[in-house]
Amino acid sequence: GLPAVPGRPLAPRRVSRRLQVGSVAVGGDAPVSVQSMTTTVTADIGATLQQIAELTASGCQIVRVACPSQDDADALPVIAKKSQIPVIADIHFQPKYVFAAIDAGCAAVRVNPGNIRQFDDRVKEIAKAASGAGVPIRIGVNAGSLDKRLLEKYGKATPEALVESALWECSLFEEHGFRDIKISVKHNDPVVMVNAYRQLAARCDYPLHLGVTEAGPAFQGTIKSAVAFGALLSEGIGDTIRVSLSAPPVEEVKVGIQILESLNLRQRRLEIVSCPSCGRAQVDVYKLADQVTAGLEGMEVPLRVAVMGCVVNGPGEAREADLGVASGNGKGQIFVKGEVIKTVPESKIVETLIEEAMNIARRMEDE
Ligand code: SF4
């Protein structure tokens, strides 16, 4: 086939029902959204709101907060009201917190009716309250907390087991006419996870929340999530994503956004096209690429900036870039759209690139 046209995703989106998580639409033709989860004790309202503000600033669109105790439930009204982005309450076992979250103005609730039912069967009331308040529910099936019955049937958390569990959970709401559902079927193994979501995508039209659970520390978790989300999103599967890292949640958001940008599911912003360096390099490419990245961080316009280690291939290799530098002899050739516009001493490369980036950004905004 033809290579992907820049600006277009790899495949059309799977057709899913559209839900409203507060101000953010999920599913249908709504853009794939990025979410994360706070790591603070939810009852610590100040710390939680502070982290939500940081997440919002980093581009997070939906935030989930855990609600394991009454103190946490009591904090929800203030958090839901003051958060700049929709808040999802994450609840296990306790129906009373589900009602509290709905009353508190949370935009959605993550709860599995299966585990509610084991203790206090109020699934029907939950369906009624959620539908009355226009609050969707995420059913989150996790390899680690799979139903005993299904573990026995399948031997372990196979894709089939995860999907059967998710669809069974859905049926507990469907029997009460409730269908404002999104689903996740998370597993720590990207291959199992991808197979589970593929099967699930084929068997229902609910929007899907992608996640590789317990993906690990930043490096491993980033790779696992990028690979798994990449496989699914490139087939059009996935409506909202959460990267799970054993790292601060802002890092999860950065990774999530980068994954969407890489797949053309979101307008790219700053992109550094830097060479890997080689024996011809006449400058420390890694350091220069880091300095340019840091200097241009936060630029909102889409901009490809090439950082090349030598003048031999520099401008040629980076013709597609908006702006770039090729270094040699203690100098940097600065080029715009592949044309060298000036040569500056090495010490001035970063500031010149920033200056030129600003000029280009200004021209782009004027257009
Ligand atoms: Fe090597 Fe120059 Fe290519 Fe960088 S741009 S990889 S230094 S040939």
From TrEMBL:
Its cofactor is [4Fe-4S] cluster. It is an enzyme of class 1 (oxidoreductase). Keywords: 4Fe-4S, Iron, Iron-sulfur, Isoprene biosynthesis, Metal-binding, Oxidoreductase. GO terms for molecular function: 4-hydroxy-3-methylbut-2-en-1-yl diphosphate synthase activity (ferredoxin); 4-hydroxy-3-methylbut-2-enyl-diphosphate synthase activity (flavodoxin). Its EC number is 1.17.7.3. Binds 1 [4Fe-4S] cluster. The keyword Oxidoreductase applies. InterPro entries: Dihydropteroate_synth-like_sf (IPR011005), IspG_bac (IPR016425), IspG_bac-typ (IPR004588), IspG_C (IPR058579), IspG_TIM (IPR058578), NO2/SO3_Rdtase_4Fe4S_sf (IPR045854). Residues 17-256 form the IspG TIM-barrel domain. Coiled coil: none annotated. Residues 271-357 form the IspG C-terminal domain. It comes from the Bacteria. It catalyses: (2E)-4-hydroxy-3-methylbut-2-enyl diphosphate + oxidized [flavodoxin] + H2O + 2 H(+) = 2-C-methyl-D-erythritol 2,4-cyclic diphosphate + reduced [flavodoxin]. Belongs to the IspG family. Converts 2C-methyl-D-erythritol 2,4-cyclodiphosphate (ME-2,4cPP) into 1-hydroxy-2-methyl-2-(E)-butenyl 4-diphosphate. This is 4-hydroxy-3-methylbut-2-en-1-yl diphosphate synthase (flavodoxin). It comes from Streptomyces iranensis.
